[in-house]
Amino acid sequence: MRGRACNLILALVVAAAISLAVGCAGAVSGSGPNPNPVAPSLVAQPSSKTVAVGQLATFSALATGSAPLNYQWQKNGANITGAISATYITPPTVTSDNGATFQAVVSNSVGSITSNAATLTVSPAAVAPTITTQPVNQTVTAGQTATFTVVAGGTAPLSYQWQKNGANIAGATSASYTTPATTTSDSGSTFRAVVTNTAGTVTSAAATLTVNAAPVAPTITTQPVNQTVTAGQTATFTVVAGGTAPLSYQWQKNGANIAGATSASYTTPSTTTSDSGSTFRAVVTNTAGTVTSAAATLTVNAAQVAPSITTQPASQSVSVGQTATFTVAASGTAPLSYQWRKNGTSISGATSSTYTTTGTTTSDNGAVFQVIVSNSVGNATSNSATLTVTSGTSIATVTVASLVPGVAVPPTFMGISVDLFDAQNSASGMGTPPNTNPVYRKLVQNLLFPGQGPFIFNIEEDSPSSSAPTAAQVSTFAKMYADTGALFWLPANMCHNSTSEAQAEASAYIANMPSAAFLGMVMGNEPDGACSTYPSTSSAFETMYTTWQTAINSVSGGPGIKFIAPNYGGQMPLVWGPPHPDLNTFINDKSLTLASASQHWYPGVGCANTVPGDYLLTPAAATNLPSIIGPFAANAHNKGLPMVISEMNSVDCGGQAGVSNTFQSALWLADASFNLVNAGVDGIRIFNDLGNYDMFQFAQSPWRVSSIRPEYYGALMFQEATQDGARLLPVTLSTSANLTAWATLDKNGNVRIAVFNKDKTAQGNLIVRVAGLGNATLKTLTAPSYTSTNGVRYGGQTFDGSSDGTIQGTLSTTTVTPSLGVYTFTIAPTSAALLTINP
Questions:
Q1: Which of 77, 276, 634, 749 is most buried when burial is the number of CB atoms within 10 A of its CB?
Q2: How far apart are CA 138 and CA 212, in angstroms?
């Protein structure tokens, strides 16, 4: 509007000047023709104009000279039709007019003159303000300030005016407004902003201010009170507190926080007399502070408790004429009374926690004893314990004449061997992270008794693959180490006769296996027959070994790698190993690069033949390698090396169905393991690799047991018999049956007698002579038949039906009481027994 007024005034001035000039000229011309006409000249040039879109622009020029003067306005150098006055007013402007130039051409009879060009600037139309972000409600505590903010769009400049409850706030003229320190009287006030520019005004939405009172620290208005309960009951403590919400609570018992006790009341678990005298208090907290209640005392009075059996009486085995003692332990409110019964009938005078029979007779065999324990509240009846009275001729006598320990059983004696490419197999493998097999881990841990471990795996390879193991494959072993502490020998695949492949394998182990878990590399996997690329003689294999050993030790991190070798084939009779000198020659020549000497063993040859159906019951099956390996183990020991049977199982080439997967394999494995210990062997690795001889196999999604075969029970019994630093004791066995016996002494003085009756018919009493020891516990290993594939029981328990590798059922043992250092028990055909004698 202001621009339009200025343009109009200028136009009027210019018009008046033109009129005056014309009037003067008219006066002159009125007196007659002008004898000296004058060409036009400009006394006022048009000036540049700036308008908004839609406005008019006025350009004016003032000229003098002889009349008449003629005007022609031009836009961008082109005549404007009808624009023939000293003043030119444009039509309403548009943005395309921006930058246009306007000039006037003034002419008369003498000549013409062109004015300066004036530029037209067309600005966009002013946009009225709009609110793009409204101010939001604010909540503060009394004494704090609150800030409200608005965001507006529109043509600048924008001006702001904040209002409180509709009234302008002095000085509040920016896009944000911060209140003074608030009071509770400000609560509920509304704040809005009025935004203005040349095009208009807009008012924001109103935002509400909430002012909360300043928090008040908590105070206890009702203290918790003392409580008295009877043992077994619960007690509840309560506190009442005032103060600004929210209040938080933490109960304490004897000054220590109680997990989860975070409400105004706390109820204890079922109390015991040990809780009596405990104090309870509550700590109450809010944002303003903390207060602790007074402590309340809990008194717990003892309750009358019915009796319960804590130790059941155990079955007993004695010889005719001996006495048998049954013992029970019970808890409950005293006094407790006892009444023993035999075959359901109370025994006169048998009213204590222990009952000893009179001298037994054969008629007592199979008698059942139990005890009823009573008090003023109730009674409890024990489990039944069976009395076995043995008589007649024994089938064997085991004599341990001395407790002077002999050969030590290494704590790492038992381990597992598996091929690299089957280690992750879904049927027999450990699983690849993150899909690891927890059942495999459980079955490994089952085999570790006190004082045993770590478990050792011997990983072998003669696969057609010429690639180094991947990081994922190696991670299988690293994760097993992390989960169980197991240690690993990892393979060099010599079947391809490629030292570069061996170097790549070594580098893969160094990069991906924890050094503490990596024992070294397996060099040779039955070089006397497994691969066609192996040399044809043991001496040539020694040369090949040296080449490979040098290559592996040359890689980065490789100089420290040691080897387990030569892993000669174990099919009986052996090709290169004992009784030939090849194994000793290898040990003597390569001892400086070895960490362990090794040999494979399969007593049964099944690749091209079948073994008899009862082969593993024969003495030869448990002794054909142990009987000849001793001198070679001694030679290894002289070189500072252990001797390990790095791969073994019952029958080679995957085992033989009807033999390897039957109960006889359990008796064979445990007995053969004792024979190997006695021969000086330092460890065995049972081959578990998708054959009939596998100890266990799995199914997936989730991981679970598919089968746990009888051989696993044999491993379990051997491990239990050789725990806690066990050493072999000298045993004399007198028997005509197919029966063997072994004795061990552990570091705690416990003597364990392991008996393996591999006779298919012999059964009866077994006499064990060990002087100067206490009562013994008998645990048996049985199956329906030596050909059974399931139904195995060890101490009355079984893995049949187990999905997670946990043994099923209740442990069942029998207490055997000695008579003058003689322990007598019965043994069934094709079964085993473990007698543990206390010091």
A1: 276
A2: 11
Let me know: does 292 contact 281? Beta carbons within 8 Å.
Answer: yes
Can you read off the two tokens belonging to residue 503? 């170097």
Q: What is the mean pLDDT of the chain?
A: 91
Task: Record the pTM.
Answer: 0.61
Query: What are the two backbone dihedrals, phi and then psi, of residue 24, each rounded to the nearest 5 degrees?
Result: -65, -45
Which CB contacts under 8 angstroms, 24+ apart, belong to 443-446?
A: 443/695, 443/696, 443/708, 443/712, 443/805, 444/416, 444/484, 444/486, 445/484, 446/716, 446/805, 446/807
Residue 602 DSSP class: B
Q: Is the pLDDT of residue 31 over 50?
A: no
**In the 8-state DSSP scheme, what is residue 443?**
H
Which tokens sit at 618?
């024969």
Cβ atoms of 347 and 341 within 8 Å: the answer is yes
> pLDDT band for position 333 (50/70/90)?
confident
Contact at 8 Å (CB) between 402 and 675? no
The pLDDT assigned to 7 comes to: 41
Quickly count: other Cβ atoms within 10 Å of residue 541's Cβ.
Answer: 23
Asked if residue 470 has pLDDT above 50, the reply is yes
**Strand 683-687 and strand 414-419: pairing?**
parallel
Q: Report which listed range, 124-128, 313-317, 355-359, 671-675, is most confident.
A: 671-675
Token representation of residue 579: 């009784």
> CA-CA distance, 553 to 768, in Å (whole number)?
54
SS3 letters for 533-575? CCCCCHHHHHHHHHHHHHHHHCCCCCCCCCEEEEEECCECCCC
For the residues 540-547, what does the mean pLDDT come to? 92
- Residue-wise pLDDT tens digits, 216-228: 999 999 999 999 9
How does DSSP assign 684-744, residue by residue?
EEEE-SSSTT-SEEEETTTTEEEEE-HHHHHHHHHHHHTTTT-EEE--EEEESSSEEEEEE
Are 141 and 211 in contact by the 8 Å Cβ rule? The answer is yes
**How many Å apart are CA 116 and CA 743, to the nearest integer?**
128
Mean pLDDT along residues 802-817: 95
Work out the average pLDDT over 225-244: 94
By C-alpha distance, which of 71, 86, 108, 100 is closest to 17? Answer: 86
CA distance 300 to 295: 16
Instruction: Enter the tokens of residue 510.
Output: 């160094």
| 161 φ/ψ angles, rounded to the nearest 5 degrees | -145, 110
Question: Rounded to whole angstroms, how far apart are CA atoms 324 and 318?
Answer: 7
Residues 773 and 751: their CA atoms lie apart, in Å, by 9
Residue 718 CB-half CA count within 13 A:
27
| Residues 794 and 713 sit within 8 Å (Cβ to Cβ) | yes
Instruction: Please spell the DSSP secondary structure of 184-226, one letter per residue.
Output: GGGTT-EEEEEEEETTEEEEPPPEEEEEEPPP---EEEE----
Taking each helix axis from N to C end, the angle separating 471-484 and 438-446, rounded to the nearest 10 degrees, works out to 40
Amino acid residing at 666: A
Q: Given this model, what pLDDT does residue 33 score?
A: 59
pLDDT for the residue numbered 397: 93
